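Q: Two folds, back to back.
A: First:
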Amino acid sequence: MKTLPTLLPLIALLAVSACQTVEGAGKDLQSAGTAIARESRQAAN
């Protein structure tokens, strides 16, 4: 049972870093989508 208190901070750190990675990927995809929409509007005009 001594390993559980040792592992909890590590598990929490991994969970937080995974959330930040997914959030960053979402922002990158949103930026790419915005750029594509802008280019398509320019091409249509």
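A: Second:
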Amino acid sequence: MLIFFSPNKTDLSSSYTELFRIQHCGDFSDWEKSKTIPSAFVIDSKDAQYVNTIVNKIRRDHLVFGFLCFVTEVQPSFDDQLLDGQLPEPSILKKKINDFEDLSQSFKNSETYITPQGRLIKYLWLRPEFVIQPQKDWQHSRYYRYSLLDALSEDTVDSFVWLRKLATAKILEPMILLDRQRECSHCRSSHLSFVDTCPNCSGIDIHLKPSLHCFTCGCVDAQDKFMQTGSLICPKCNTHLRHIGSDYDRPLENYQCQSCSHAFSEGEVLVRCAMCEKSMNPDELVINEIQNWRLSDRGRVIAFRGEVFDLSSGFDQLDFISKELFVHDLDWMIVLTRRYKNISFSLFGIYFANLNELVDEIGHTRVLQVLESFAQRLRNLLRTPDLSARTAENMLWLLLPNTDKQGLAGFHKRIENSMGQLLQESDQKLIFRFCSISSDQLSDKESAELLLARLSGGLL
């Protein structure tokens, strides 16, 4: 079933009617009376306002907000963030609908999806390659807006505030930085004006006035004050100024305030917000990065399972410290070993190359069981002062104090044997790779960040 919106009661070509049943509607209220669940919506109009009105009502409807919606003719003024493009040929449309229905069936329905966040996750899940893009709108207080976020949140929250929350929750991940703009610290508007002011009284009535400096008496004043009967004469000591550089020069102070007569070379910039009319210094402005966004791996897991299923939970018993703290401690150990030659340590990395593929093959639960078994074995190999951290879902690091090159080789052998036994017992094709280095192999002036990057780069 195609819901066909057209203000002129036009019809789709016969090639569509052969494959689909068509329900004609003049406006959105006509569909609301029937509440027919469609395969897709089609809007036929060259009127951008009509198209935007219909598609915005579709995206704000709790029942059909995520359904496919096409237009018969693409216009530059149409908001392609809310549309799925131009109506394709019937055979291609049929395939798009089938793919859409397959994704819809794999989506884990839950009561949580009546929330704006749930609707956004579902909308993006149904469109795997979709990228949330900002639109420029000079009438908007922030100049940029995210129309999809505005529609799915029903304009109840600021889309930029919502973006920060979604990014913090790792539901969305950034792609491309498009712009960096400064905004009012009070209302976050980007409609700002910048005005030069007097650094003495903060007045705005300042003018560029050339001035002269008399070398004889040190008088500095406006050039007009030195002009007398067509000659340059100091108004203070009456010296004739003939040669620049020997009798006089031009000081840097070229501006003068008309309110307090203060002379200066450069004014102070004051920022005024056009929305809330607050004034502030430029360093008080808030920097906002405008980016493209897409659904993250965490968001896709939520869509597929209806809950957050983090494979890293299989390593909970390892008592990970944060990446930042791990890097700090590693830097500290590097400094110690360079200062005191009798102190040693080793760094050991474990990379799981095929976690995502294994999840697709045997499922999250069985993969989690394998990881939990590995974590238990690894915990038995670690000592109390050993530190562990996870820098990615499939990348683990171990910091082994007081472990030299020989001790590292023994640890490497023990963990390799343990992994071999685990794979035999579980009969799973978990692919893992190791990297390691002892303190006597460190490069000069190499920091913890560079060391981790160098070692992990060899594993990927």
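Q: And?
A: The chain has three domains: 1-106, 192-280, 310-457.
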